Amino acid sequence: MTGSKPGGTDNRAGPRYLVIGRVARPWGIQGEVKVKIMTDFPDRFSLLRKIYLGPEAVPFVLEGFRLHQGAALLKLEGCHDRTAVEKLRGQWVQIPIEEAMPLEQDEYYEYQIIGLAVWTTGGEYLGTVDEVISTGANDVYVVRGEEREILIPAIEDVVLEINLAQGRLVVELIEGLI
To answer: Is residue 109 part of a domain?
Structure first.
């Protein structure tokens, strides 16, 4: 799975935008912003001409980009000083879903996993994936059913099948999960 989260979205139809970062703060006095990178493809910023900020996905032309100590520094058209970019603090940095980087086989974006029905290999319905938690070692799927919440580690031994066409995820429960 990869780290891009859904942005402006109606999850049933799929998101219109993917979050690839979040504006942390202004950088310097020339109107740059420091962005916390939230994608597995940080170099993708160099391919972009336009980004979209905030819940309304306001478009900004990207004039420049550079990586600095694990963050992205962006120069946006029309933002010439620190004051102009201060109001952008905390905004999600998004791209249209059509510009998402292609993934390898058996890799998925979070928005594709959220909402899947979760079934055991024995045919028991557990609920739907409500959230994906990134832990560092592996992702964890938060599955909410009618009576309980189950944390499913996204590892090969547990998640046996992800079928996007059928909207389902098949798991082999290991000792201690329920």
So the answer is: no
